[in-house]
Amino acid sequence: MKDENENESNDNAPETGTIQNTSDRTNWFLGVIICVGGIVCLILWGLLSIFNPTASNQLSESSMIQIDGNGIFLILCIVAIVVGAYLLLKNTTKK
Q1: Residue 89's closest CA among 35, 11, 18?
Q2: Could you read off the pLDDT of 46-88 as tens digits, one per residue?
Q3: Which of these, 41, 44, 33, lies nearest to 77 by C-alpha position?
Q4: Cα 69–67–48 angle (5° rounding)?
Q5: SS (H, E, C) the chain
Q6: Residue 32: CB partners within 8 Å, gap ≥ 6?
Q7: Neighbours of 56 (CB within 10 A)
Q8: Tell me, what's the pLDDT at 20?
Q9: CA distance 49 to 55
Q10: What pLDDT is stored for residue 55 in this prediction?
């Protein structure tokens, strides 16, 4: 009796392999998006600094703390790239 009930409950449970695989794929995709977003922001900041220095100066003066706005923006871009790379590498080492 007990064995039959255990088999029935196991048949209704979703497979953990497919859930894990979907979660890994989602994390990998999220890592790619975050990395690409950070890289695009760095490229846009570089182009903005070269072609429109007044906008870069305005961003520099926009911060309320001691670090200028350019520094904060660059730090956020680097953090986005590092977090995205971490998500990508975390999923590739599991396999």
Answers
A1: 35
A2: 888 888 888 777 777 766 666 677 778 888 899 999 998 888 8
A3: 41
A4: 25
A5: CHHHHHHHHHHHCCCHHHHHHHHHHHHHHHHHHHHHHHHHHHHHHHHHHHHCHHHHHHHHHCCCCCCCHHHHHHHHHHHHHHHHHHHHHHHHHHC
A6: 84, 88
A7: 19
A8: 66
A9: 7
A10: 79
Q: 40 to each of 24, 37, 63, 78, 95, how far by Cα in Å?
A: 24, 5, 22, 11, 29
Tokens of 71: 């520094």
Tokens of 10: 């196991």
Measured CA to CA, the distance from residue 5 to residue 63 in angstroms comes to 64
Residues 91/24, Cβ–Cβ less than 8 Å: yes
Dig out the tokens for 25 from the structure: 């794929």
What is the mean pLDDT of the segment spanning 12-25? 65
Q: Which two tokens stand for residue 70?
A: 């350019």
